[in-house]
Amino acid sequence: MEDNLESIDQENLPETEREFPAPKGDIRISEDVIGALATQALLSVDGVRPASAGIVANLRLGRKGSSGVRISVSEGNPPVVQVDTFIIVKYGLRLPDVSWDVQESVKEQIERYTGYSVKEVNVTIQGIDFGEPKNPASPTESRQGEGENPGEFH
Fold first, then answer.
1. CA distance 143 to 21
2. Do the Cβ atoms of 81 and 29 come closer than 8 Å?
3. Which CATH architecture fits 26-131?
4. How high is the pLDDT of residue 6?
5. Each residue of 94-110: b (16+ CB within 10 Å) or e?
6. Any idea what DSSP says for residue 15?
7. pTM of the entire structure?
8. How many C-beta neighbours within 10 Å does residue 33 have?
9. Tens digits of per-residue pLDDT, 9-25?
């Protein structure tokens, strides 16, 4: 009889206050998915672009790495994530400030979307972007008229 009363009470409650049985099973998020989230976080920081993860990643000797990030996920419940980032920074920006922004952005993005805890975000600055080099003289200026002597005026 009491069980019957409990089920009636549950039905009268708003959906947000009802008790639902916990689902069974584990949810695992791929390192590739976490890497994509970290890459998006890198792209959201002004003056930063991803660099390659270096020769170790190219030889596949380390953990998975692509688009300027390398992800390592521990086996645990909940899993703990370690992120290595490889970036190129725009010339003129203060490197410690940019590094801090990258760490905060990556950590916040991964924790918000996965629920995993981020143990550390390592930042390796692999280069400085000085912008586009100045173009040499345009082709029309360098030719000065074909077959003409540069000293003659018309």
1. 80
2. no
3. 2-Layer Sandwich (3.30)
4. 52
5. eeeebbebbbebbbebb
6. G
7. 0.65
8. 14
9. 556 666 666 677 777 88
**Per-residue model confidence as pLDDT tens digits over 55-69:** 544 544 444 455 889
Give the containing element (helix H, strand E) for 128: strand 117-129
Whether the link from the prior residue into 23 is cis, omega within 30° of 0, is no
148 token code pair = 């003409």
List CB contacts of 85: < 8 A, sequence separation 6 or more.
38, 42, 50, 68, 69, 102, 106, 121, 122, 123, 124
Retrieve residue 133's tokens.
Answer: 């080099």
Residue whose token pair is 């170790």: 56
- Tokens 């708003």 appear where? 14
Handedness of CA 126, 58, 111, 120 (dihedral sign): negative
What is the pLDDT confidence band of residue 154, given thresholds at 50, 70 and 90? very low
